[in-house]
């Protein structure tokens, strides 16, 4: 007799959370880690190293430290939610249409060019990025400037490790990122409203911060196309638009680079885009957010909970001017 299995019972996040439950009941849970995460006062990012093979085949790492929430205490959204409500304007401005349209994106082979003001420019194949850098897990809240958020268990590696290989020259002050641009598979590029390709930037010290991640997976699997496969940036203390997807180029530059959203509406979207409940968007309040999957709004926290880690980067700056 066939035993019916509901699809929800075989989804990857079910296995993922089971694995974590297993680790937890096996008694490997770090109590200190859990408490500091829930209080939002941990001084170091929530990380643990997983082998790069875990991207394809999740495995139980015995020594894995376990945190099951983001820094503000929220558990991860489901894979279903994370991969079906997406901003990826290259495909569509309709968040619920992106998942289907993005399936046409070709992500193999993939290479990231690292250049500009560096001593060691180079082009890195995606497979090499996976094998050359330990893949860590980071549970981050992605807070969109539109007033919603999602908690996502990423895997990836800190951007500073790649930048260290490239060896920035002393006149490099900013990092510029560029997304792939393929007119055959990205229908959104037909819009003349935006300046394609999608491009973003960080100040070098922001880029070098250990929280700044190049994500290569989520829920222990390869990134879904709609989430920015095969490699995307995640800057957890900034609004989601800084977290540029499907990166093909990283360039060290001397001047603050223009960005896709500052070009589209400079009065509404700034270069810094730090999550800040005290600085409203011109058309709506930023004091609260709705976590996708929940009906209630919760207060937005400055720097998305990472003020202790990143506040010093903005010492002396007026964040309502440098929004
Ligand atoms: N290339 C590219 N990157 C992008 C976007 C985009 O339209 N194109 N949207 C940004 C915005 S506004 C958000 S909120 C996040 C959404 O990421 P997610 O779909 O993985 O949740 O991606 C960011 N990165
Ligand atoms: Mo966003």
Feature tags:
323 residues; alpha+beta; Sulfite Oxidase, Chain A, domain 2; eight-stranded mixed beta sheet; five-stranded mixed beta sheet; 9 helices; 21% strand; globular; disordered N terminus; binds the ligand Nc1nc2c(c(=O)[nH]1)N[C@H]1C(S)=C(S)[C@@H](COP(=O)(O)O)O[C@H]1N2; binds molybdenum atom
End-to-end CA span: 61 Å
On the 0-100 scale, what is the average pLDDT?
87
* Total number of domains: 1
**For the report, how would you describe the main beta sheet?**
8 strands, mixed
Bound molecules: the ligand Nc1nc2c(c(=O)[nH]1)N[C@H]1C(S)=C(S)[C@@H](COP(=O)(O)O)O[C@H]1N2, molybdenum atom
Number of strands: 13
Rg to the nearest angstrom?
19 Å
Q: What does the overall shape look like?
A: globular
The helix/strand order is HHEHHEEHEEHEEHEEEEHEEH
Q: Which CATH class is shown?
A: Alpha Beta
Residue fraction in strands: 15-25%
- What is the CATH-assigned architecture? Alpha-Beta Complex
* Share of helix, binned: 10-25%
Assigned CATH superfamily: Oxidoreductase, molybdopterin-binding domain
């Amino acid at each position: 007799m066939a035993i019916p299995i509901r699809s929800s019972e075989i989804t990857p996040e079910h296995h993922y959370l089971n694995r974590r439950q297993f680790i937890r009941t096996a008694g490997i849970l770090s109590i200190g880690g859990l408490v500091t995460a829930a209080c939002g006062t941990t001084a170091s990012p929530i990380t643990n190293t997983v082998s790069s093979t875990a991207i394809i085949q999740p495995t139980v790492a015995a020594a894995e430290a376990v945190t099951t929430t983001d820094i503000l205490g929220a558990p991860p959204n489901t894979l279903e939610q994370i991969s079906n409500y997406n901003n990826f304007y290259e495909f569509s401005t309709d968040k619920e249409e992106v998942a289907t349209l993005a399936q046409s994106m070709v992500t193999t082979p993939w290479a990231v060019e690292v250049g500009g003001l560096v001593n060691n420019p180079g082009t890195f194949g995606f497979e090499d990025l996976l094998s050359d850098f330990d893949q860590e897990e980071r549970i981050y809240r992605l807070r969109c400037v539109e007033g919603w958020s999602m908690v996502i268990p990423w895997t990836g590696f800190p951007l500073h490790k790649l930048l260290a290989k490239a060896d920035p020259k002393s006149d490099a002050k900013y990092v510029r990122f560029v997304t792939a641009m393929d007119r055959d598979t990205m229908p959104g590029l037909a819009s003349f409203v935006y300046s394609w390709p999608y491009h973003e930037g960080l100040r070098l010290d922001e880029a070098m911060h250990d929280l700044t991640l190049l994500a290569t997976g989520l829920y222990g699997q390869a990134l879904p196309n709609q989430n920015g496969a095969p490699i995307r940036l995640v800057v957890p203390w900034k609004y989601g638009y800084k977290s540029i997807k499907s990166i093909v180029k990283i360039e060290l530059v001397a001047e603050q680079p223009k960005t896709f959203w500052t070009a589209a509406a400079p009065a509404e979207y700034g270069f810094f885009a730090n999550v800040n409940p005290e600085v409203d968007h011109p058309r709506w309040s930023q004091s609260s957010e709705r976590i996708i999957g929940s009906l209630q709004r919760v207060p937005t926290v400055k720097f998305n909970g990472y003020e202790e880690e990143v506040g010093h980067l903005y010492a002396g700056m007026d964040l309502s001017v440098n929004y």
